[in-house]
Structure formats: C-alpha cells, structure tokens
Amino acid sequence: VEAVHLIADGKAPRIPQPKEGATYEGIQKKENAEISWDQPAAALHNWIRGHDKVPGAWAKIGDQVVTFYGSSLVDASVPAGQELAIKGASRPGLVTKSGLVIFGNDGKMVLVRNLQFEDGKMIPASKYFSADETAALELTEEEKKMAEDIR
C-alpha cells in the first residue's frame, strides 16, 4: 500500500536498472533473422526454432524470401529427394517426403517441415515442388444451388 501511495504522490524512488546481468532481448526484426549457412546443423536448428513463429528465420530460394518453420535435427543417412538450391548454402537442400532437409557445415542434417512465401502462403516443405499445382474445386449439385442462393 505504501508503494502505491508513493507512486501516486510522485515520490517513488527511481533506480535505473543496471545493464550488467540483464537478460532481456529486444523484439527481433525480420531483417535480422536471415539464416547464416556457415554453421553446424545444431546451430541452424537453434536459429530456426529460436525465430519460430516470429519473426521467422528466412533464406532466399531463387529471388524469393522463404521463411522456415518447424525444424528438427536428423540423425540418419541422407534421404532421397529433389535438390533445391538455397542462396548462401554450401550444399543444396533436399525436398523429401518428410520436408526440406538442409545441411550444416559439419555435414549433419536439419529437417524443416513448413515453408512460408513472401505472399503469406504457407505450405508443407515436402510439397515445395508441387506448390504451384492447383486442384479445381468441384461442387456437388446441392453446393451449386447453395452458391446460387448465396449470390
């Protein structure tokens, strides 16, 4: 109660917090979350997971900024997949049935499960090469009637 009264009266002491020992980190910005590829797989995984969801660790694939989400370390043999060139990476990634496999400078692997494009569209990383395919929406007769009623 006394502290509240001191604050209300404008008489509370103001002691600046020392910078030494502070653990608070400011809000991360997207431009600071670019993936640096010259690191071991564990560091890549930590970087991606540390920026998952906001702001999202990103890299350039072609001319597009792609954000990586949901990584895990892989301790297995190199899986079969389709190569994907990633700007700055010493080795191309592999789009596999499980997701996108990327490589650290130690040769170990990280599996990324989801990718988000600049337009906001998110896809499973395993569907990267089929992302442009679109399926036609077919309505049943009942759905067509409902669509007309709504129109």
Automatic annotation (TrEMBL):
- Protein name in the entry: AL1L2 dehydrogenase
Query: Gene that codes for this?
Result: Aldh1l2
Organism the protein comes from: Crypturellus soui
Q: Please state every residue range assigned to the domain named Formyl transferase C-terminal.
A: 29-130
Q: Which SUPFAM superfamilies match?
A: FMT C-terminal domain-like
| Record GO terms (molecular function) | catalytic activity
Which one Pfam family would you cite for this protein?
Answer: Formyl_trans_C
The opening ranks of the lineage are:
Eukaryota, Metazoa, Chordata, Craniata, Vertebrata
InterPro entries associated with the record = Formyl_trans_C (IPR005793), Formyl_trans_C_sf (IPR037022), Formyl_transferase-like_C_sf (IPR011034)
